[in-house]
From TrEMBL:
Protein's UniProt name: Cysteine desulfurase
Residues in Aminotransferase class V domain copies: 26-395
Annotated organism of origin: Compostibacter hankyongensis
EC class (word): transferase
Keyword Transferase on entry: yes
A Pfam family recorded for this sequence: Aminotran_5
InterPro entries registered for this protein in UniProt: Aminotrans_V_dom, Aminotrans_V_PyrdxlP_BS, Cys_dSase_SufS, Cysteine_dSase, PyrdxlP-dep_Trfase, PyrdxlP-dep_Trfase_major, PyrdxlP-dep_Trfase_small
CDD domains attached to this UniProt entry: SufS_like
Catalytic activity: (sulfur carrier)-H + L-cysteine = (sulfur carrier)-SH + L-alanine
Keywords: Pyridoxal phosphate, Transferase
Length: 408
């Protein structure tokens, strides 16, 4: 992949150019949320300055402009994940919103007592709790694919879990806590052979890994705009048309109807059936700029850059005594989790913040995974395209000094 001019990329992110506690900001919390390039911020401001209007209902000029831009993002998302049709792209509030939508419409309608839903040990809470809720409501049973201590799905165990009772498999593409990239194509193929549908949580993967929903043949795929250099409060649910058609609406309200009488309501067509009420118009519009930012740099080039940073930080951490890396799968996104012997992650997180370094500490919304690993939480550094080898070296120096000082 062609290499990226990181200095030029950094210049497009206003937030990066600041001091935190007297040190230049090193932002290594990208798995939580990425920073936003100027063109995303500008698109938001332009919408509110120039053509703020509600969409789909006005015939006036501003409403037409806003509607056109809103729908242009839908087409851009369709191209970005290579969906067959723009109508298969539903705007949600985020990954969490998308999973809950599928659980409460598809799940609630098609799951019966004794049916099984399969997730994995490394799921984010947002891919656990919605399934627990719908299992409670329907009498379906939740099954969990075990993982190795290095943080990889045990596919043989997965195969044993699959049966004619399996209705749905919902698995993360790339783990936010460990960085593991799962063999989702195999997961999907095996589920289909068992007659089950598959949802892929691409919250992390969508920005680092190839996502072609037709090639993957997943039934549903969800992600959030804010981890993809876009705004918070907007996300995407992709679903195959025939499944979305078969699902009842999620929420009732304006936009999602065709005709309402007090006796009976008919529902709007896809995608509007699932977009009740005034959506997050400004953020959806700005998301198009984020997709362009990623596409223009090229996902393979971004991934290659992040892989170099991952290799550098992993090697450096391994050289510091008392540090154990959590998640050692051979195929990882730019996420490194680690624990330090005798040093609580909250303490290290605070000491690093005092030096201008932002990492995430804690359970990363994966408590069952932490339980399996027998730890309470980790320190996690996660990369985006604007991070540099110099930042990694500064991080390693700082962590090394903290750890060595404590040992004396
Ligand atoms: N799944 C994964 C793998 C995630 O990393 C996250 C965010 N940390 C989510 C789901 C939830 O995303 P959101 O909070 O944007 O809905």
């Amino acid at each position: 992949a062609p290499s990226i001019d990181i200095t030029a990329v950094r210049a497009r992110f206003p937030v990066l150019h600041q001091q935190v506690n007297g040190y230049p900001l090193v932002y290594f919390d990208n798995a939580a949320t990425t920073q936003k390039p100027q063109q995303v911020i500008d698109a938001l401001t332009r919408y509110y300055n120039d053509y703020n209007a509600n969409i789909h209902r006005g015939i006036h000029t501003l409403a037409e402009h806003a509607t056109a831009d809103f729908e242009a993002t839908r087409k851009a998302v369709q191209a970005f994940i290579h969906a067959r049709e723009a109508e298969e792209i539903i705007f949600t509030s985020g990954t969490t919103g998308g999973i809950n939508l599928v659980a409460q419409t598809y799940g609630r309608t098609f799951l019966k007592k004794g049916d099984e839903v399969i997730i994995s040990t490394m799921e984010h809470h947002s891919n656990i709790v919605p399934w627990q809720l719908v299992c409670e409501q329907t009498g379906a049973v939740l099954k969990v694919i075990p993982i190795t201590t290095s943080g990889e799905l045990i596919l043989d165990e997965y195969k044993k879990l699959l049966s004619d009772k399996t209705r749905l498999v919902s698995v993360v593409y790339a783990s936010n806590a460990l960085g593991t990239v799962n063999p989702v194509n195999t997961v999907i193929r095996l589920a289909h052979e068992a007659g089950a549908k598959v949802l892929i949580d691409a919250a992390q993967a969508v920005v680092h890994c190839p996502v072609d929903v037709q090639e993957m043949d997943c039934d549903f795929l969800v992600f959030s705009g804010h981890k993809l250099y876009g705004p918070t409060g907007m996300g995407i649910l992709y679903g195959k048309r025939e499944l979305l058609e078969a699902m009842p609406p999620y929420q009732g309200g304006g936009e999602m109807i065709s005709e309402v009488t007090f006796a009976r309501t008919t529902f709007n067509e896809l995608p509007y059936k699932f977009e009740a009420g005034t959506p997050n118009i400004g953020d959806v519009i700005a998301m198009k700029r984020a997709l362009e930012f990623v596409s223009n740099l090229g996902k393979p080039a971004i991934a290659a850059h992040e892989a170099q940073l991952l290799e550098r930080i992993t090697a450096g951490l391994q050289d510091i005594p008392g540090i154990r890396i959590i998640g050692t799968a051979p195929h990882k996104i730019g996420v490194v989790s680690f624990v330090v012997e005798g040093l609580h992650h909250f303490d290290l997180g605070m000491m690093l913040d005092a030096k201008g370094i932002a990492i995430r500490t804690g359970h990363h919304c994966t408590q069952p995974l932490m339980d399996f690993l027998g730890i309470e939480g980790t320190n996690r550094a996660s990369f985006a395209v604007y991070n540099t080898p110099e930042e990694v070296d500064y991080f390693l120096d700082t962590v090394g000094q903290i750890v060595r000082k404590r040992k004396k």
